[in-house]
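S.,

Sequence below, as promised.
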Amino acid sequence: MDGIEITWLCPSCRHVQTAPWTPGVACTRCGRPIPGPPEGSTGLPLERCRLCGVGELYRQKDFNVRWGLAVVALAAVLAYWTWGLSLVGALLLDTWLYRRVPWVVICYYCHAHYRGLPGVKAYETFDLLKHDVYKTLREQGPTPIVLDGPGIQGPGIREFGRPADG
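The prediction came back faster than expected:
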């Protein structure tokens, strides 16, 4: 894959799509444009989601979790007849996939997936508390609430609902 790719859910027509992330990208169904990459940001990690403005992003391996669970479940079912060797095989397959599957950066609020971003190790891994907070915010209404992160100036909400100082 060359360049950055984004997968997003269009807020207008609810169509999920994947496209190269370049200026001028729009929804293929309704034509709504999405913000392109920030200018002059080559080599720097993305500070905020460009679709919803939320500054909480995390990284994970770009692999379908359901497939991973299916492999483990199959290995567990076969463990009786294989004397546990199927579990070892699942472990080896998991290790092999972990080393080869690339990282993806995901927004907690809108679940936009950014593939091919530079400096992916700068992002934190998944945090269940942040996920639950943003899930609750998403269920309360369509307007995203931007949580200011460390080092970001301006009014807003800091650390999960506590008002910003001053």
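The chain is about 25% helix and 20% strand.

Coffee later?
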